[in-house]
Amino acid sequence: MGGSRVQVNKSHKSRFSSKSSRNLHRTDLKDKSRISKSGGNVAKGARAARLQHNRMVREQKKAALLKEKRATSGSTSPPRVIVLFGLSAAVNVDSLAVDLLSLLSKQGAGAAFSTVASSEYKLRTTVLKAPYGDLISCMEMVKVADLIAFVASASSSCEESPSCYIDSFGSQCLSVFRSLGLPSTFVLIRDLPTELKKRQDSKNTCMSSLASEFPEDCKFYPADTKDDLHKFIWHSKEQRLTVPHWRNQRPYIMAQTVDMVVDDGNLEKCTMLLTGYLHAHSLSVNQLVHVSGAGDYQLTKIEILKDPFPLNPRKEQDLMDADEVHDVEVIRSLAPDPEKQEPLLVENIPDPLDGEQTWPTEAEMAEADKNQKQKRLRKRALPRGTSEYQAAWIVDDTDEEELDSNDEADDGMVLDKQESDFPDQEGTNNLDLDDDQRSLNLKDSDEETDIDSMVMDGENLTKEQIEDEIQKIKNAHAEDEEYPDEVDTPLDIPARKRFAKYRGLKSFRTSSWDPKESLPPEYAKIFAFDNFARTQKHVLSKALDMEQGNRDDCIPASSYVRLHIKEVPNSVACKLCSLIKTVPVIVSGLLQHESKMSVLHFSIKKHDTYSAPIKSKEEFVFHVGFRQFVARPIFSSDNINSDKHKMERFLHAGRFSVASIYGPISFPPLPLIVLKSAEGGAAPSVAAVGSLKSVDPDRIILKKIILTGYPQRVSKLKAAVRYMFHNPEDVRWFKPVEVWTKCGRRGRIKEPVGTHGVMKCILNGVLQQNDTVCMSLFKRAYPKWPNHCSPILDA
After folding, report:
1. Which residues are in coiled coils (predicted)?
2. Parallel, antiparallel, or unpaired for β 123-129 and 80-86?
3. In 10 A of CB 702, how many CB atoms?
4. What are the percentages of helix, strand and coil residues in the chain, rounded to 5?
5. Calpha distance 775→544 (Å, rounded)
6. For residues 522, 524, 526 and 532, what is the CA-based torsion angle, rounded to 10 degrees?
7. Is the pTM of this model over 0.85?
8. How would you classify residue 381: left for phi > 0, otherwise alpha for psi between -120 and 50, otherwise beta?
9. Which of 248, 314, 555, 588 has the maximal Cβ count within 10 Å?
10. What is the C-alpha separation between 186 and 220, in angstroms, rounded?
């Protein structure tokens, strides 16, 4: 052993020792005789740095809170939008609006607009009255509301329901508002008794009855006198406003005036002028905008106008007159840059020659010649004296076998090949099927000669008799009708033609399905992303940079602006000019790519108040955030364990499904309200609610059908099954597809029997006589392309 090698053990680490005591065993490099101690200033420096970091975080939060407060309640902030919503028909919202406006402004209800500026409260407010019974108007008001004041009447109490202060329409609107996302909420109680004790008891009763319907931080205020309203205004002014997250991602304007200027060059379209306050974010003149219910458009100009409702009454007093509001002075005007303006691209224009066969290249022609020469040089065993001309007509056995196998592959049903408990058709030659042949040969035994006679009887039946017999068997198995995908095989059309687009799958979860295979023509019009999450992150960061960059083509938030929207159809503009008196017209800025069409998927649930069945591919009006458009969805299950999802013919109540549509691209999170238009001009009803899930054209939705047959004769593991098909050609076509039974047996088709579609099947267990033999077939389903996208024309 070397003398310099000495065993070195690990130093002992004390579990409860301090940091300083752990370093006592270390010696100083300069003076090895002196034991060094860690300086105390190290710990003090770390503690000071930690305290400094905490102080900086507190100051940043305080500055952000102060900035948010100034942005929402300062003199430069846009007017705060307060929506008064009556919870029942007994509530008089008009009188409450008059009292509020008279308290906030000297002009009161006689002002030109519901927007008033109060120097006493240092607050600018827009008061909107939600019309009772008009669901769409209430929804549009809530989308732009900074504060919702739910108004309850203390005199409308009843004993029928626990929430006796809310009627059916109020309850329906409340559920819709929750799906959209509630901003800051208050409850105002009207019609309280004048006597103090009864007044307090009535208020407590109303609060206890309504507390479960609203958020926990919702406050209740009496609203009968001016003192009550004065208290409510002060508290609402000082409260920090909360708005849904989806509303803070895009700039929006609630138009106060809508005008139209007819274009000289195009008499069918015009330029629409909308005036209002800009909320949430800055808006670029190169950006696309969406007018609620009317579609997406480009801007020709943005004008910044002088504020008609300044908070300081001494400034610009002449602008407060109602007659001069339309003559507001223009401070600044912005025009779009043709190179930077985002194009209004909705659909992709496909190339009709794309995918056509081209002339073969020289390499392909050379390879074909080489293969032809090799085929000629191949030696074949020919009879003596055979000429070359005669040899060309002689086909080898190998060629014959290849042709037969190719014909079988072309004529047979397509089946996804996976590992199976049963051999597929190519491996049946390797099995010893002598026993099977003997057991399934219907003429070998006396027992099975009865089947032959039954088949002959079936051949003599007419079409009506066969349908009646099938219906009788279906009625006998009515208690097992828990499979909603069962369909009947038609008698007049061959099954191989009727179900030509369907295929079999060995496993719904693990079998492969190419998402690019056999796409419909509508897929040539839409857009897709390689990575949707990455694109969304890039688009949102680009919008944030535009917000913080102080660019010259952007209008800052809180500005009073006039938008010039070009190429609006005259019918749409006239409709908006008439609707602005009752329904708010909302203009929202679009992010990049949000005008293009794609396949959108929504997590959706049927609304409790809607009792009619909702069928796939019906026409609905989708309210997605600020946007409205017409769509024809298909419904499917959300299978998290597979890339394939089963289509549902109806939207079932009580559970969530996925609705897939062709629609304009949107970036989540966004709420969804689905409306069903009623016939005869009646008000639309809420059919479903939900939220945006993803944008993915490659999501595979499979429509499943189940063909059923019934055992005619059972012999151990073999059975003769009838009424699944009605001719032997169909049996041969669907031969590769696996069959299963409702009692859990699985098997395969062996061969047809007779001429009326009876088939022999081999199963993995004994088949009961009352069992049902099934075959599952699948095809890919797609949504329907909408006929038009603007729901405002249907209003």
Report:
1. 456-483
2. parallel
3. 20
4. 30, 25, 45
5. 54
6. 120
7. no
8. beta
9. 588
10. 6
* Range name among 31-35, 235-239, 727-731 with the lowest pLDDT average: 31-35
Query: Has residue 495 got a pLDDT over 90?
Result: yes
Q: Taking phi first (over 0 means left), then psi (-120 to 50 degrees means alpha), and beta for anything else, what does residue 700 get?
A: beta
Cα separation, 113 vs 146, whole angstroms: 18
Letter string b/e over residues 563-577, b meaning 16 or more CB atoms within 10 A of that residue's CB:
bbbbebbbebbebbe
On the question of pLDDT at 188 being above 70, the answer is yes
Mean pLDDT (whole number) for 498-516:
92
Cα–Cα dist 15/26, whole Å = 18
CA atoms within 13 A on the CB side of 452: 10
Q: What count of Cα atoms within 13 Å lies in the side-chain half-sphere of residue 14?
A: 10
316's tokens: 């610009």
pLDDT of residue 790: 79
DSSP 646-689: EEESB--TTSEEEEEEEEE---SS-EEEEEEPPGGGPPPEEEEE
Collapse the DSSP code of 601 into the 3-class scheme (helix H, G, I; strand E, B; otherwise coil) and give the result.
Answer: strand
150 in Cβ contact with 346 (< 8 Å): no
User: Token pair of 152, please?
Assistant: 């309850």
Query: Which tokens in the block code for residue 12?
Result: 């002992």
Q: Residue 718: how many CB atoms within 10 A of its CB? A: 20
pLDDT at 766 over 50: yes
Longest dimension (CA), the chain: 127
**Can you tell me the distance from the alpha carbon of 137 to that of 584, in angstroms, rounded to the nearest whole number?**
7
CB 720 within 8 A of CB 713: yes
Helices 93-104 and 226-238: angle between axes, nearest 10 degrees: 70
- Indicate if the alpha-carbon torsion angle 310, 311, 316, 322 is positive or negative: positive
Q: In this structure, how many other beta carbons lie within 10 angstroms of the beta carbon of residue 67? A: 11
CB neighbour class for 33 (10 Å; exposed up to 12, middle 13-18, buried from 19)? exposed
The Cα-based distances of 532 to 250, 345, 551, 589 in angstroms read 19, 19, 27, 20
Q: How many C-beta atoms surround the C-beta of residue 517 within 10 A?
A: 8
d(C-alpha 122, C-alpha 104), whole Å: 10
- As given in the structure block, the two tokens for residue 631 are 């769509």
Distance CA 618, CA 608 (A): 19
For 253-298, the DSSP string reads EE-SEEEEEE-SS-TTEEEEEEEEEEESS-EETTS-EEETTTEEE-
Rounded to whole angstroms, the Cα distance separating 563 from 410 reads: 62
Phi, psi (deg, nearest 5) at residue 619: -90, 125
Q: What is the distance of C-alpha 652 from the center of its chain?
A: 17
**Which pLDDT score, from 0 to 100, does residue 183 have?**
93
Query: How many whole angstroms separate alpha carbon 781 and alpha carbon 795?
Result: 31
DSSP string computed for 125-139: EEEEEPPTT-HHHHH
Please give the DSSP secondary-structure letter assigned to residue 120.
Answer: T
Q: φ, ψ for residue 110 (rounded to 5)? A: -85, 0
CB count within 10 Å of CB 368 equals 11
Q: Which tokens hold the place of 793? A: 């024309």
Is the model more confident about 460 or about 556? 556
How many Cβ atoms sit within 10 Å of the Cβ of residue 754? 19
Least confident of 8-12, 230-234, 535-539: 8-12
**Mean pLDDT, residues 275-291:** 93
Q: What is the pLDDT of residues 361-417, one digit of tens each?
A: 888 888 888 888 776 666 666 666 666 655 555 555 444 444 344 444 444 454 554
Query: Among positive and negative, which fits the CA dihedral 130, 217, 74, 283?
Result: negative
Amino acid present at 435? D
Q: pLDDT tens digits, residue range 86-138?
A: 999 889 999 999 999 988 887 654 444 588 888 888 888 999 999 998 999 99
Contacts of 624 (CB under 8 A, 6+ apart): 663, 666, 670, 671, 672, 692
d(CA 759, CA 734): 11
